[in-house]
Every structure is written in C-alpha cells, then in structure tokens.
Amino acid sequence: MHPMLNIAVRAARTAGNVITRAFEQADKVEIESKGTNDFVTNVDISAEQAIVETIRKSYPEHTIIGEETGQHEGADNDYQWIIDPLDGTTNFVKGIPHFAVSIALKVKGKLDQAVIYDPIRGELFTASRGKGAQLNGFRIRVKQNKELTGAILATGFPFKKKQHMTAYMSMFQALFEKTSDMRRAGSAALDLAYVAAGRVDGFFEIGLKPWDTAAGELLVIEAGGLVTDFTGGHNHTQSGNIVASSPGLLKEILKDIRPHLGEALSK
Ligand code: IPD
Ligand code: CA
Ligand code: CA
What we know:
By secondary structure, this protein is α+β, with helices and mostly antiparallel strands. Helix content is 35%, strand content 28%. It has helices spanning 3-23, 42-58, 89-94, 165-176, 188-196, 210-222, 236-239, 247-257; strands at 31-35, 38-41, 62-66, 70-72, 76-87, 100-107, 110-118, 123-128, 133-135, 138-140, 152-155, 181-183, 202-205, 226-228, 242-245. The strands form 3 sheets. Strands 4-3-5-6-7-8-9-10 form an 8-stranded mixed β-sheet, with helices on both faces. The chain has a 5-stranded mixed β-sheet with strand order 12-11-13-15-14, with helices on both faces. Strand 6 (100-107) and strand 7 (110-118) form a beta hairpin. Helix 1 (3-23) runs antiparallel to helix 2 and helix 5 (188-196) runs parallel beside helix 6. The chain is globular, with a radius of gyration of 18 Å. One calcium ion is lined by residues 44, 67, 84, 86-87, 89. Belongs to the inositol monophosphatase superfamily.
C-alpha cells in the first residue's frame, strides 16, 4: 500500500472509532445548525481533529482542507488533503447507521489517494491513482451498463438548497421513468463508493462540496467509471453538480439531465 494511503486509512479508522463510540451514546451528541438544514455535531469536529492530527504527525508540511476546521496551510502546497470527517451527519443525528469518513489526497492538483470508510459495516474503500480501487483489499469495478433500463441510480435531494428543487425534480422524473429504481441513502461519499463497487449503476446530485466528492471521484475512476458535471465537462468540483457511472450509462443520464439545466445549474 502507498505510504500516504496507509496514513489516510489510519486516520479514517481513528475517526471511525470516534464516530461509532458516539453513535452508541446518542444522548451525549451536541448538535448545532450551520445553515438551512445543515447541521454539525461535536462528533464531526472531534473526528476531523483526529484525522488532522494523524496526517500532521506523518506529513507536517502538507496542506489540509477539512469541512469543519477549514484550511490548515502547510509549507508544501503540492500536497492537499481533503477531508469530510462525517459524511451523512443527518443520518448520524437521527440514528440511521449509514455514514462515512472520506479522505482524499491531491498531488499537484490531481487526485492521488482516496479512502472512504463506513465504520458501522467495517467497509473500507480505497484507491490509489493508476492502481485500481478496492473494498477491504479486494478489487472493485463499476458496472458497465449502457442502458437506464434495469439500472438503480443513487442520488441526493438538494435539501440545503431548495431553490434547485424544480430543476432537480424534472431530472429525477425523466430518469425515474426509465430506471428500475432510485436510492437516497444520505451519504454522497458512500453513494460514490457504491458506484465504484457496482452496487448501484450511477449517481447524480446538485451542489455538493469538494470534501463530499474528492475521495469518491478517485474511487469511481479507478474502478473504471467516469465522473463529470451536468454538461459532461469537468467543472464538477467548482459547481458541485456531479454525475458518476460507467462511460456508456453516463451518456444516457446526461441526456435526461441536460434539458433541465437552469441558469444556476449550467455552470
Ligand atoms: C451531505 C451528504 C448527503 C448529501 C449532502 C451532503 P454531510 O454531507 O453527503 O448525502 O445529500 O448534499 O452535504 O453534510 O452529511 O457531510
Ligand atoms: Ca458531506
Ligand atoms: Ca460532513
């Protein structure tokens, strides 16, 4: 295993322990609102601190960007870690056991290492640039479907940005008419990991943040899939509008998304 992936795995497991311990004592979790339908708990923050500490111990020079604690500038900006310490906070707060730790490393602006860890199921998804993607050490691959017929797509609702509801619902309707079914499980990181593992055929969501998607993007690519924005371009890190699936199915998904791109979504 690449030494930097090894550190990412160590950090993810440490954060996972913080999260599962707290999940068993839900009455002690402190919840605060960050914005409309957007919550943070003391557990998100402790998990992020544990990850930052683990990375800092081995790589004090690297830059770290965390959802909860912001940017920790290091002397070396070529190495950037992008962290979501707890993806699926709403599930966590409600007692739904579906959430994950997501850690990615970019080297000179390119995704290089990725870990998504589901601490409840003990599932560790990993990827290294050019080396494929694994689940608990076993190779995973994106399902190479070319058609929406029979496909299951994962998605997320724009619950923090309800101004996108009309556009989203139109896309959903167009896709739902053709697919077998949809899943809204509540963790974008796990949605992407499940695309990589071939558990779902594709994924789309509006307005995600870089820490929601960085690790998942590398997993999908290394598992033989594609990740684009809603126009088929590569602006998804900026826009947060993301589609992931096999290359063949992605074309079909975009056909049903494109007609509903409003002003706000076309960028
Ligand atoms: C959220 C989850 C959710 C997605 C949201 C994200 P958080 O992340 O990934 O599935 O629909 O857009 O913000 O806030 O739980 O880290
Ligand atoms: Ca997230
Ligand atoms: Ca989070």
